[in-house]
Amino acid sequence: MTDQPFRRFVIVGGGTSGWMVAAALGKALGRNALVVLVESEAIGTIGVGEATIPAIDTFHRILGLTPLDIVRNTGATFKLGIAFDDWQRIGSSYFHPFGKYGVDHAGSSFMRHWLRLRAEGEALDHGRYNLETMAARAGRFTLQPPAAPDSPSINHAYQFDATLYAAMLRRFAEAQGVERIEGRIVQVRQDGENGDVTGVVIDGEREVAGDIFIDCSGFRGLLIEQTLAAGYVDWSQWLPCDRAWAVPTAVMNPIPPFTRATARSAGWQWRIPLQHRTGNGYVFSSAFQSDEAAQDELLRTLPGAAAAEPRLLRFTTGHRKVFWQNNVIAIGLAGGFIEPLESTAIHLVQTAITKLMAYFPGDPISPRLADRFNRAMEREYRNVRDFIVAHYTLTERDDTPFWRHCRTQARPDSLNERLLLFEEDGLIDEQPDDLFKEASWHAVLLGQGLLPRRFPALAAMTGRGEAIELAARVSAAIDARVAGFPTHDAFVASCVAGRGLRV
Catalytic site residues? Predict the structure, then answer.
């Protein structure tokens, strides 16, 4: 054995996660390693994870892909955040944007000053102080940099066709030397002494050998679970939704630059507008609603006629007890699943890829690397879980058994600690590795109706008039910036045509 890196990587499964891994490995390793992806056209992929969060542009920049590449190859539109309807109560609405509120001032974030002004009787819409919220309300978007150096920049993600996205990444990966092998895996071979996977057999004939295996086989976890029996951490006690119907409808006119999540009787409904269709789905709990009733509710509430037969997906929220076991690393649905309320599925794939590169395996594999990877991924999943659980438990709804269950169910201790700190002192305990930062927590907690009993003490050190002037200045700057944006439809059209994009 040597201390040199492994040279044979086998990715089991394609789809978004498989081809993201293949593209990243191909880009990083080039021709210095053999990277093979095995997938079967007969098995297919989930293909409904069409919404993302802003961190995905970091992944694209590493690969050398631009926003123009994404829009022209994946049917993508731009996403400024998520609109939540009927979550606090029927008729309520709020927006979770991708950018910060206002600007930091006198040692405090803008929202701490806002909480102070609200406590003193000022009726201020906090959405007025966020660029992404105001652009979403106006249906406008641009990637053009601001003309003034102190003018706010815009944060965005994408809404895209996951199948087209995987196809684009496949072309990219193959250009980097990644080999794709078509076929159904019928057998997994292991080392008789240490249990490592040594190869996969395709259709009973060809064996694909490897040193490191990346399991992107979806919910079934062909290697990590069916072969290595890693086990699963079930989070149904906090997130009871376990099924989803998905169905497309026609293109929206105009196309909004955001995703919509509408609370329904036993879960919530998504609406994701693309260039060529609108993705719709209903995530629900089978303990509170039958498959047939859920399908009926979805079809009744679609923004137009269904363009295909609805497709039912079954899942259990949680993650593998270990993501990396022996020489197998599970990424994507093979590693775990948290329902798509905050569009984190693709981000968790990206996170796993980033951590794989950080803890890149040598020969022999260091158990410490695998342990660090597993702890980091568990922490990432747990942080996302807590943020999503907050949406459900901070509700006033009691109109259905599902919502009565959500508002009275126990919360994870880690979430309770965060909520109690906000309730008592108006503080968000942001940690360096948090995916969702202070602005995101403010958007959801305030949107769900949770208000602190007092505002953060440091904000009181700023004069009231100074705080009001700050709010007015921020609002005016945002209004001026949005007024110069083209409509979202016009900007997407300019990207498709290859015009008007300077980033």
Answer: 79
The pLDDT score that the predictor gives to residue 211 is 95
pLDDT at 42 over 80: no
Amino acid 462 reads T
At residue 146, the pLDDT reads: 80
Give the whole-angstrom CA distance, residue 140 versus residue 77: 12
Phi then psi dihedrals of residue 268, to 5 deg: -155, 160
Lowest-pLDDT range, 193-202, 258-267, 396-405, 460-469? 460-469
pLDDT digit string, tens, across residues 402-453: 999 999 999 999 999 999 999 999 999 888 889 999 999 999 999 999 999 9
Cβ-based neighbour number of residue 440 at 10 Å: 22
Phi and psi based region of residue 426 (left: phi greater than 0; alpha: psi -120 to 50; beta: remaining): left
Q: Mean pLDDT throughout 5-17? A: 90
Length in residues, the chain: 503
Q: How far is CA 43 from CA 39, 152, 169, 326, in A?
A: 8, 46, 19, 26
Helices (runs of H) and strands (runs of E) counted in the chain: 14, 21
Q: What is the pLDDT of residue 2?
A: 46
What are the beta bridge partners of residue 84? 94, 261
Structure tokens given for 445: 């907690």
Distance CA 355, CA 21 (A): 12
Question: Tokens at residue 384, please?
Answer: 């996302």
Helix (H) / strand (E) element for 271: namely: strand 267-273
Q: What is the C-alpha to C-alpha distance for residues 492 and 77, in angstroms, rounded to an integer?
A: 7
Give CA separation, 346 vs 66, 165, 246, 377, in Å: 18, 11, 17, 14
Q: Give Cα separations from 65 to 72, 111, 168, 333, 350 (angstroms).
A: 11, 34, 10, 24, 15
The helix (H) or strand (E) run that includes residue 85 is: strand 81-85
Q: What's the Cα-to-Cα distance from 478 to each of 61, 99, 136, 236, 390, rounded to whole Å?
A: 27, 12, 12, 41, 29
Could you list the beta-strand ranges (E) of 125-258. 157-159, 179-182, 185-190, 197-202, 206-209, 212-215, 232-234, 243-249
Alpha-carbon distance of 270 to 283, in angstroms, equals 8
- Tell whether omega for the bond before 54 is within 30 degrees of 0, i.e. cis: no
What's the N-to-C CA distance of the chain in angstroms? 47
Angle CA 268–346–395, to nearest 5: 25
Which single residue is written with the structure tokens 């040597």? 2
pLDDT tens digits for range 167-206: 999 999 999 999 999 999 999 999 999 999 999 999 878 9
Find the helix or strand (DSSP H, E) in which 380 lies: helix 367-393
Q: CA nearest 17: which of 215, 220, 225?
A: 215
* pLDDT score for 363: 83
d(CA 221, CA 206): 21
pLDDT of 262 higher than 90:
yes
